Write a sequence for this structure.
């Protein structure tokens, strides 16, 4: 009875593994399938144009040096440069335009706390203003 249960569990695990592999290629999870497709295309094109021993040398060097301090520093620098190159650049005018209502509201709140009642009324929108 225990052997039968073990066989059933083993078959269930094998079935789950095969369904997972099948799920990689039927676009049920598009981002994961896209990543697998890109890896397959890159490895196929690499193996068509370059000798395999270059790939094995590259992987071996990576595994050999990946925990050393100079390699970590190089990877940290590359990640930092990639992050810097990929981020959106903000200019002061864009920030000022985007956050204008927040800045006006904050200034009005500051004036209200300071006791400048006259300026607060002109800075805050009134109920008779048309909202569009």
């Amino acid at each position: 009875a225990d052997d039968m249960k073990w066989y059933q569990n083993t078959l269930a695990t094998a079935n789950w593994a095969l369904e997972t592999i099948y799920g990689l290629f039927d676009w049920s999870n598009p981002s994961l399938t896209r990543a697998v497709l890109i890896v397959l295309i890159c490895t196929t094109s690499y193996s068509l144009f370059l000798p395999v021993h270059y790939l094995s040398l590259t992987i071996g060097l990576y595994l050999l040096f990946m925990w050393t301090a100079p390699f970590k520093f190089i990877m940290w620098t590359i990640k930092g440069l990639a992050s810097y190159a990929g981020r959106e650049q903000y200019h002061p005018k864009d920030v000022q335009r985007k956050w204008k209502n927040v800045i006006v509201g904050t200034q009005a709140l500051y004036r209200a706390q300071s006791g400048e009642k006259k300026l607060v009324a002109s800075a805050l929108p009134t109920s008779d203003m048309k909202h569009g």
